[in-house]
Amino acid sequence: MTVNEDIYRRIRSDILAGRIHPGAKLSPAVLRERFGVSLGVIREALTKLAEQKLVTARGGQGFSVVTLSPKELGDLTLVRVDLESRALRLAVERGDLAWESEVVSTHHRLARTPMRDEADPERTSDEWAEAHLAFHEALISACQVPLLLDFCHTLRAATELYRRWSGPAAAKLVAKRDVTGEHLAIMEAAVARNADLAAELLAEHYRRTQQVLLAGGFAQLETAEEAAPGSTE
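Above: the chain sequence. Below: its structure as tokens.
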């Protein structure tokens, strides 16, 4: 792993884990001192995070973590459903046996990874988040359209920030939802080569996530934005 990639991953992890809050300012100079790297490395990492909709470039005023809103979440979900459903249909049509095996194995890992952090049950565990990402990436990996995959990756990263900041209320709603069953149904439809059903189940999966965040998570999200600790300025 290069220094540039390492710094990008570390800043991204800080944002998703809540160590840097939504709306917080990001000072390249402060981050440079913190990580002990050049200003160019920091700016490259922040620019990449801006491309993934996790950071906002504020013109000549620097960078900040994106703010969160119900409308933005709705827009993200709308576009994500359209693009990933299309990508999944193509993957089902074009995927080979190796693709099927990857979908099944990533689902197996996801199904057996605890969703909640033992130290903080109201937070998603990093292990589950990684397994969840791997499963959803595997589902569409065989679509054979790199540009479409890039768009899907960007939207997934932006949505992840909302999910990580969903808070205790959303965690209680998720506990009442059969997320494991949803993932299983999507996996089974995909490997059965039922593109229509797989795409329909995936779209409904994302819409349910949106509903949970809107119903239970935004009080926590808005509180975090108002306080916005974790700023690097």
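Residues 195-227 form the longest helix (33 residues).
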